[in-house]
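Students often ask why we bother encoding 3D structure as a string. The short answer is that it lets us treat folding as translation between two languages. Here is a chain of 135 residues written in the first language.
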Amino acid sequence: MFKRLFNFFSSLLGDLFQALFNLLKTLFRPLFVLVAMVLYLVYKVAMLAWLLIQVFWSIAKIVVAFVKGIFITLAGFTYSGQTDGAGTWQPILKNVALGLNYFQLDKVAYVLLFLIWFGVAWGVIRIIGSFQMAE
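And here it is in the second language, the structure alphabet:
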């Protein structure tokens, strides 16, 4: 008899707590969905912000590399009157000229050196000349 009575009370309390849990779950479901939507929005905004930071960082690295390249190139055009490699490309091209001396093409190498220098200088002048004066 006690066994039946305890089984009855346990099933009654179990059903009561299960019904209460189902009711709370049904009542709080919209709140849980709303919290999940807000957290998902925050997550996506943070992902977008991180992507924008990466894009701006990449653009900054490209701009710095471009400016550094321009300054290195312009610094290589300096002439100090010394024969021990005044510019960045001078030692390389002198080695090419010495290598072509064996084939008696060193004069052609010096002419090509002048043409390369002239072409690069002309290109730099065109690039600098194409900048508009901001007012």
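Translate back mentally: The mean pLDDT is 81. Keep this in mind for the problem set.
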